[in-house]
Amino acid sequence: MKPFEDRHFNSADGIRLHYREYAGPADQPPVLCLPGLTRNSRDFEPVAEAVAGEWRVLALDFRGRGLSGPDPDPRRYLPKTYVRDVLKLLDQLGIADAVFVGTSLGGLVTMLLAGDDEERVAGALINDIGPEVDPAGIERIRGYVGKPQRWAGWTEAGQAFQAAQGDVYPAWKPAAWERYVRRLCRENEDGSIVLDYDMAIAEPFGQANDSTQPNLWPLLNGLDGKPVTILRGERSDLFSAEVADRMVRELGEAAELVTVPGVGHAPSFDEPESIAALRRLLDRVRTAQG
């Protein structure tokens, strides 16, 4: 594993938030990694293994996940809140712009941030999310998010996730599933394994009404003309091929669509195709930066 530093900063409303920092050059935008709904900075270990050193890599734990503090008011577990947290981090570190790598919720946060302040985005990889999502995927996520679980050890946890999500990563062997749960879960003092997020993050997600969701397509305007990669799992039940194709059409020739074969929602960056796509994006960012 590439060496990193655990660092913290305070959100505007006083919550202590955590991010990993992997060293890299200061004369180019860093790679800023934003995780999915129930995930954390550990998800991006494969990204750091691939590009840290050549690029500075920052991987954030959204509030209520990983080593970041929980929000005492669950109503603030919203994408707009996470956008403010990301901007606070960038401002505190004096970072003018970054290459955003956002998985699912992290990709939505990237699109929202670009809509608010497009100059902060040097490039973006949007992983398995778009302005429209498939209701089937949303219902699947609602079925498990915010429900506490406990396992006796890592092997048992890996087996449980393989049984529940085997259709998402059908080619994975037991070792891959254990690696997956070590990113998603934490070990208690008694040796039991639990999910590493505040169960209250489910409250605003579960209350969302799909019929009243705003039109998010205009958010792509903030990414127009920038190097963008749209990453999609071939088996994704959240991000349809039709939405992915439309995103690339609207973003134009600066955008690349990469479909990762044999995986669902969402590609984990353990796939060679995902890392190759990221490398191509970074090469395009470097060219655009001159």
Radius of gyration: 18 Å
Strand order of the largest sheet: 1-2-4-3-5-6-10-11
Distance from first to last alpha carbon: 31 Å
Helix vs. strand class: alpha/beta
Order of SSEs: EEEHEHEHEHEHHEEHEHEH
Number of helical segments? 9
Average pLDDT rating = 96
CATH architectural group of the largest domain: 3-Layer(aba) Sandwich
Whole-number tally of structural domains: 2
GO molecular function, one term: hydrolase activity
Keywords: Hydrolase
InterPro entries: AB_hydrolase_1 (IPR000073), AB_hydrolase_fold (IPR029058), Carboxylesterase_BioH (IPR050228)
Domain AB hydrolase-1: 31-277
Describe the structure.
- By secondary structure, the protein is an alpha/beta fold.
- The chain has two domains: 5-137 and 201-289, Rossmann fold; 147-196, no CATH class.
- Helices cover 34% and strands 19% of the residues.
- The protein contains nine helices and eleven strands.
- The strands form two sheets. Strands 1-2-4-3-5-6-10-11 form an eight-stranded mixed sheet, sandwiched between helices. A three-stranded antiparallel sheet has the order 7-9-8.
- Strand 1 and strand 2 (16-22) form a beta hairpin.
- Helix 2 (79-93) packs across helix 3 (105-116) and helix 5 packs across helix 6.
- It is globular, with a radius of gyration of 18 Å.
- The two termini are 31 Å apart.
- Keywords: Hydrolase.
- Residues 31-277 form the AB hydrolase-1 domain.
- GO terms for molecular function: hydrolase activity.
- This is Hydrolase.
